[in-house]
Amino acid sequence: MAFTPKLLMVDPSHFEVSYVINPWMKPGAWHEDPAGHLRQAQACSAALHQSLVDAGADVVMAPGAPGLPDMVFPANAAVVLDRRAIVARFACDERRGEEELFLKLFRSYEARGLFDTVVQYPEGIFQEGAGDALWDDSRQQFWAGYGQRSAKASLQVTEDFFNVPVVPLELINPRFYHLDTCFLVLSGGEILYYPPAFSAEGKALIEGLAGKENVLEATDEDAAAFSVNAVNFGKQIVMARPPASLKARLEERGYRVRSVDLDPFILSGGGAYCMTLRLNRSSAAAAQKAAAE
After folding, report:
1. Where in the sequence numbering do the catalytic residues fall?
2. What pLDDT is stored for residue 178 in this prediction?
3. Alpha carbon distance 22, 42 (integer Å)
């Protein structure tokens, strides 16, 4: 790695599962023991934090807010590349209150010099952050999900803002409402993805651009465990507890898999990737420019 990955997490003190905006959300299960689940969520968040630090990341913690439990999933807050950030527009009413707080947070980062430019997607064009825009360092492009939470119109906005290619992937299964729930870009150029989440055109596009030798198909078990929703940098992968077969497949390719119990967050439809946002992701062109200056 050229530099230490800086990852944003959000304090889970206000986390709960209190509404349903995706098929995974189980408020009934949460409310059987809300205090116990919150304690478990805080412990699991701390374990994820420690696992990321142990893997070599610098983790920045931001506060959450009452009534906005899904702030613990900052992957949806913005798309970030080359010291530029474009803040999300949420499709669901339940999450729209997050926009103002995340915009304020990113403006504070801009004021401190972490970002050069911070804007927001145009009003009415829904786009839910890095959860639907996964940067592929090997191919120097974004893979962008649309059709569930993010609008197809957001793809051109993303491409124009960052001036890099954006590859559209239509999501056809409501259980996989963000691209990060069913698609993982690995540092070695491999793509781990769950085929039933995609249209035939999308699957063909993935295989065509990545090459069949680089495509790893996730199983039903892998997807249900939220193991595809993982954080990767270098040869380190941090994920919700994976099935043994997936762990073995990844280790065969030279990756170090770090398993974390994220069960309370899976009750809300989120895993390790959802719970983080890479703040210092850089394209090759920007890195070359910086080196020349």
Report:
1. 178, 274
2. 98
3. 22
How many Å separate Cα 88 from the centre of its chain? Answer: 13
Sequence letter at residue 3: F
Six token digits for residue 146: 């649309």
| Domain-wise residue ranges, the chain | 6-292
Q: CB neighbours (10 Å) of residue 10?
A: 28
Helix (H, G, I), strand (E, B) or coil at 262: coil
* pLDDT the model gives residue 1: 40
CATH of domain 6-292: 3.75.10.10
Closest to 80 measured CA to CA, from 293, 291, 286: 286
CA gap 61, 8 in Å, rounded: 6
Residues lower than pLDDT 70 in the chain: 1-2, 291, 293
* Nearest partner of 244 among 269, 267, 225, 272, judged by Cα: 225
Place of tokens 């680089």: 214
Residue 79: is it exposed, middle or buried by C-beta count within 10 angstroms (0-12/13-18/19+)?
buried
Instruction: Check if the beta carbon of residue 216 is closer than 8 Å to that of residue 246.
Output: no
pTM over 0.90: yes
Closest alpha carbon to 116 in 293, 282, 291: 282
CA-nearest of 169, 129, 162 to 145 is 169
Report the 10 Å Cβ neighbour count for 291: 8
Amino acid identity at 219: T
- Which pair of structure tokens corresponds to residue 91? 């499709």
The pair of structure tokens assigned to 245 is: 């077969």
Q: Which residues fall within 8 angstroms of residue 36, CB to CB, at 6 or more apart?
A: none
Beta bridge partner(s), residue 170: 146
